[in-house]
Amino acid sequence: MDMSGSHRIPAKRETVWQALNDPDVLRACIPGCESLEKTSDTEMTAAVTSKIGPVKAKFKGEVTLENMNPPESYTITGEGKGGVAGFAKGSADVKLTEEGDETILTYEAKAQVGGKLAQLGSRLIDSTAKKMAEEFFTKFSEMVGSPAGQDGPAAAASDDLDPGVAEEAKRIAIEEAPGEVMHAIEDAEHAVEEKIHQAEQNIEAAAGRNVFGGPMVWGLVLLAAVIVVLALAS
Predict the structure, then answer these.
(1) What pTM was estimated for this model as a whole?
(2) Tens-place pLDDT, residues 117-132
(3) 92 in helix, strand or coil?
């Protein structure tokens, strides 16, 4: 996945550069960010919870700043793992250009996803990534300068997905739902079978000792036990 963009930040370039390297600012601006710690002058660790279509996961990863040229440019690389949801890794070249009292931030990013995320389709992933980027830069501009410096209405983050993307997410969720339901039913059936088998063993052992009236009484007890287990399972 390739993505690029340009944003006008209503602040001096030095101020923008400092904010881009401030963990507290980044933590507040990154959508779904739960933690962001600076481990060195060029390294950070982060935990972010993100939802892409029907897949929601918590990603933990590391971020490294390379090719540092303050306060003009750097390259940011990172990789995050989200368990069964998959992984995401990539890099972005960031450049700051000063225009009067404002700064033009441009970036070119490349990313790769794997696991369950890769099954969602590039259109859904691209749309979500762009939406998160817009949310980040909108919040970032509010924190480091005046919101009036945004590049017009197009820079505002939208809470709604593209109708086509929303329909694709709905289709994926519907396709995955039957398989998840069948797994749940199979697990329940397996648990019921184990309970019935255990009850049979206990009853047969007691019946062999002629406890509480012999096999006839224990046959009735077994029937009652099966009925109760099935009722609980349902």
Answers:
(1) 0.59
(2) 777 777 887 888 888 8
(3) strand
